[in-house]
Design a protein that fits this description.
By secondary structure, the protein is α+β, with helices and mostly antiparallel strands. It has 3 helices and 4 strands. The model has no long low-confidence stretch (mean pLDDT about 90).
């Protein structure tokens, strides 16, 4: 099972949320993924993630306006877990 790292940036002003997530990605271990809580959609972050081998899924959240799940696509454990639990159904 993958391990969730919760990163709540909902009270931070730009560009702090972006910086916090990039810092966390650098120390993300095998089988770990980020569950980011944010007050808005971090659209600029999505392109940076994609360009660097990460995947992200966003949806309206329960505890915060937006929940974003981020994982390294090269990590088999987190990639399989996150795709099966958070990625939209491709069928």
């Amino acid at each position: 099972m993958a391990r969730e790292i919760v990163v709540d940036v909902s009270d931070l002003e730009a560009p702090q949320p972006f910086e916090v997530v990039l810092k966390q990605l650098k120390i993300l271990g095998p089988g770990e993924y980020i569950h980011m809580l944010h007050r808005k959609q971090p659209l600029p972050l999505l392109q940076v993630l994609e360009e660097n081998g990460y995947a992200a899924v966003m949806h309206k959240g329960d505890s915060r306006p937006w929940e974003i799940f981020i994982w390294n696509t090269a990590d088999p454990l987190s990639n399989e877990y996150c795709r099966s639990h958070f990625a939209p159904d491709s069928s």
